[in-house]
């Protein structure tokens, strides 16, 4: 079945993929399980981030603090609260491409003493924005020399983290455009606990990158082949050189596409 046309995915893009997701999480670690990615430099033998019976559980971990990177010129604060980013609200059209599930797990880093151990506490109710180009390398909501997509909002949206610091999205594997390696932008903000996004009291902006070999494999498929071979690999990207290796997204293949989990600790003090 084509995941882009699956009614189950359309109704609940990530959570309805139960069997596939269990298989993926077996590879990546559970949503609230041991710290395979993002909150520990030495995950072996560490306690779980949160127990399955308590959303308030905490663990003593050496958290990874990821580098910030530029937001670039294409951020548009659409305030679209949604899991499935593929659809353009203006036209109803679904962006073509290989489905990609994203799971962010966000933590606040707390220090007991300046040089002492640090504690990762799941950060609930944070706003996680995601935006990216489509398979043809085009962003929505902007006008440039290549295209004019003002008024459209495909491949953009936000989710608030739950009590475990988790926010999930369904999108597509991104295409490419000149001057950049393949990437996805994200921004994490804290503010009002209401539904609207209030002026942020804390903001973290960065980008996700992908293994070049995986991108080569995916970009040999349609609709990516229509764009031609990309001109920029990770090591050739000037922005990637500033911490990009710490922003590579671990990705596993599923029977419906690909799935990546990204953990991040934020020093908010």
From TrEMBL:
Domain (Intradiol ring-cleavage dioxygenases): residue spans on this chain: 121-181
Keywords, ordered alphabetically: Dioxygenase, Oxidoreductase
InterPro entries: Intradiol_dOase_C, Intradiol_dOase_core, TAT_signal
Pfam families: Dioxygenase_C (PF00775)
Protein name: Intradiol ring-cleavage dioxygenase
Gene3D superfamilies tied to this protein: Aromatic compound dioxygenase (2.60.130.10)
SUPFAM superfamilies reported for this sequence: Aromatic compound dioxygenase (SSF49482)
CDD domains: intradiol_dioxygenase_like
Organism placement in taxonomy: Bacteria, Bacillati, Cyanobacteriota, Cyanophyceae, Oculatellales
Gene Ontology MF, one: oxidoreductase activity, acting on single donors with incorporation of molecular oxygen, incorporation of two atoms of oxygen
């Amino acid at each position: 079945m084509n995941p882009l046309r699956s009614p189950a995915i359309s109704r609940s893009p990530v959570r309805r993929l139960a069997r596939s997701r269990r298989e993926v999480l077996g590879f990546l670690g559970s949503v609230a399980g041991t710290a395979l990615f993002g909150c520990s430099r030495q995950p072996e033998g560490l306690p779980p981030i949160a127990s399955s019976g308590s959303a308030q559980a905490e663990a003593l971990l050496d958290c990874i603090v990821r580098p910030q990177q530029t937001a670039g010129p294409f951020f548009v604060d659409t305030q679209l609260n949604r899991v499935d980013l593929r659809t353009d609200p203006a036209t109803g059209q679904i962006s073509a491409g290989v489905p990609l599930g994203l799971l962010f797990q966000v933590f606040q880093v707390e220090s007991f003493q300046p040089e002492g151990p640090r504690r990762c506490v799941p950060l609930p109710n944070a706003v996680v924005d995601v935006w990216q180009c489509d398979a043809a390398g085009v962003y929505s909501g902007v006008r440039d020399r290549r295209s004019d997509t003002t008024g459209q909002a495909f491949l953009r949206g936000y989710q608030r983290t739950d009590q475990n610091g988790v926010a999930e999205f369904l999108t597509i594997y991104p295409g490419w455009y000149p001057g950049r390696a393949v990437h996805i932008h994200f921004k994490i903000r804290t503010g009002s606990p209401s539904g609207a996004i209030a002026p942020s009291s804390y903001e973290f902006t960065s980008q996700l990158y992908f293994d070049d070999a995986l991108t080569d494999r995916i970009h040999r498929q349609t609709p990516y082949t229509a764009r031609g071979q990309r001109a920029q690999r990770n090591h050739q990207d000037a922005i990637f050189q500033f911490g990009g290796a710490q922003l590579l997204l671990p990705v596993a293949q599923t029977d419906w596409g690909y799935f990546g989990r990204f953990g991040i600790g934020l020093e908010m003090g």
